[in-house]
Amino acid sequence: MDDSSEEQRTPVSLSGSAMWSFFIQELSDKELNQLQVEMQNEIRQRAIQSGDHEAIIKQAFEVGFERSGLGVTPWIEGQLLICPGALVSRNPTNHRCRFVSVNEEWIWQSGHLITETKRPSPGTDKGFRAVALIPVIEGTTIDIVSGKMQSGQHRAEKVISFEIKEGKLTEVSQRVVPIDGMHH
Fold it and tell me: Interior CA angle at 66 toward 63 and 71, to 5°?
């Protein structure tokens, strides 16, 4: 018996990623874009259905803020990214703040936002604390923007950037914003 007939009878075994790659290559650009939208919608729906969001938010308010009152680095819990943010103020013209941006949109404007809870700052400081939940979606970029307002002028001071890679939040860069990078 010749080897070529044996090869024809042996099934080709494709790895999972090779199988998906083969499938995806056959899609048109329109179908590929639609598949991406549908996959993100499914990930979001699963995240919405996962866990007790109220309990997660309650716990996040207990552990998600530094002594200064500003939010700590976001973290992943199951299918959710927990994002604390805060504005701490002693008077109307001065404050410190730290908020999260998702794919270059403020978290409260993001289409990924599942829920956000906002509470007044505890103690004598004015301002508020917030905890937002978004789904863990591969490739999502997260910026943690720390800033301050002095004498009515607001400016970002530091930005720490992360990306969701293989289900983990991975830091990709940090930058201090020079004084001439001020915005109003």
Answer: 80
Distance of CA 71 to the CA centre of its chain: 14
Q: Whole-model pTM above 0.70? A: yes
For the segment 131-143, the average pLDDT, to the nearest whole number, is 95
Same domain, residue pair 91 and 130 = yes
- Which residue segment(s) compose the domain that 175 sits in? 50-181
pLDDT reported for residue 45:
85
In this structure, the answer to whether residues 144 and 160 fall within a common structural domain is yes
Same domain, 28 and 91: no
Beta-carbon count within 10 A of 135 CB:
22
Return the pLDDT at 20.
73
- In the block, which residue shows the tokens 């008077």? 91
- DSSP structure string for 42-107: HHHHHHHHSS-HHHHHHHHHHHSB-TTS-B---EEETTEEEEEEEEEEEETTEEEEEEEEETTEEG
Q: Quick one: pLDDT band at residue 180, thresholds 50, 70, 90?
A: low
Count CB atoms within 10 A of the CB of residue 43. Answer: 16
User: What does the pLDDT look like over 27-69, one tens digit per residue?
Assistant: 788 887 788 888 888 888 888 888 899 999 999 999 999 999 9
CA distance to 19, 86, 125, 162, per residue, from 140 (Å): 24, 22, 33, 8
User: How many Cβ atoms from other residues are within 10 Å of residue 97's Cβ?
Assistant: 22
